Amino acid sequence: MMTRIIGVGNYIPSEMITNLFFDKHIFLNEEGALLKENNASITEKLKKITGIEERRYAHSTQVTSDLGLIAAQAAIENAGIDPETLDYIIFAHNFGDVRFGTIQSDTVPSLAARVKHLLGIKNNFCVAYDVLFGCPGWIEGVIQANAFIKAGIAKRCLVIGAETLSRVVDIHDRDSMIYADGAGAAVLEVNTDDESGIKSHLSASFTFNEKDYLYFGKSYNNEKCPDTRYIKMDGRKIYEFALVNVPEAMKKCLDNSGYSINELDKIIIHQANEKMDEAIVSRFYQLYNVPVPENIMPMVIHKLGNSSVATIPSLLAMILKGELEQHELKKNDVVLFASVGAGMNINAFVYQF
């Protein structure tokens, strides 16, 4: 018995934000002093390191659960199922619904409950709950859905990843340019027909020294925003942590699957930072003493930015819908999914299509 993906969907917000959007921003350092570089130099450096040229922001009338609903509807349609047959709706996010122009996070009821309501599902035994696990939240939701299915608790689950990071960024922090909004979703069900499905998975939480690498902190503009908190990160520590720990986790997960490194067809990794992702994949292949294959890692961060839990399911939907040149997934292809983020959390799973 395996757990397989039978439908995918995503939502890419229509508001395109180029790097020119930040031309008039006043960027400060942690002490509140104006950065010496001009904004053109700051954005060019961002592009060089992260690869980000554009990102998408949700419309001012939308919140995270709205984005998740659209992705969920697309996944359900793609799967061709009746939503009343869902046993679980698992919604991965980090900041709840934050309405445009406000600073308050709204998480009651859960975003999963809101999506279930908006889908019109009457089945009371379709359980809806949220997952807070940093950027790896969608993968963790998939792992939980797999556990429910393997245990016989569920036969069909909907896993959503959505976020509106544009609502929780400090506009005076240059790291704010990294973040974006978006949503992705997948329907998973029990598979007794063939060998397609999840072959192995792995999760880990590094909290002893790494808990505050990503955190909520004060604005760099203490005069105008003394009490409001925003998403903050120690980029250098995250980079170093990821390069040491993520390749090892990916290797352990692949080894547990029974597949060899030469049987791996794609790596779908959290779109956090182009240079960091390239370095992670390079180190992963170094662990096997083989070169990195061409086109092994699809990237969309250039145009979509970092939308946290939404990056992986959205990217998966784009590949399966044939929207990325040079990237496709065929029957029997073996894919390694991996993510790293706030916690610090790492997870991965190996999937055969």
Q: Sketch the topology as an H/E string, one letter per element.
A: EEHEHEHEHEEEEEHEHHHEE
* Biggest β-sheet: strands ordered side by side in the sheet: 1-7-6-4-5
Write down the overall geometry.
globular
**SS summary, helix count:** 8
Span of the ends, CA to CA: 15 Å
The unreliable regions are none
- Strand fraction equals 15-25%
Biggest beta-sheet profile: 5 strands, mixed
Defining key terms:
353 residues, alpha/beta, five-stranded mixed β-sheet, four-stranded mixed β-sheet, 8 helices, 25% strand, globular
Structure description:
- With 353 residues, the chain is α/β, with parallel strands linked by helices.
- The protein has helices at 39-50, 64-79, 111-118, 137-150, 235-257, 274-286, 301-304, 311-320, and strands at residues 2-11, 15-18, 54-57, 88-92, 127-131, 156-164, 181-191, 197-205, 214-218, 229-233, 266-269, 334-341, 345-352.
- The strands form 4 sheets. It has a 5-stranded mixed sheet, sandwiched between helices. The protein has a 4-stranded mixed sheet with strand order 8-13-12-11, with helices on both faces. It has a two-stranded antiparallel sheet with strand order 2-3.
- Helix 3 (111-118) links the parallel strand 4 (88-92) and strand 5 (127-131).
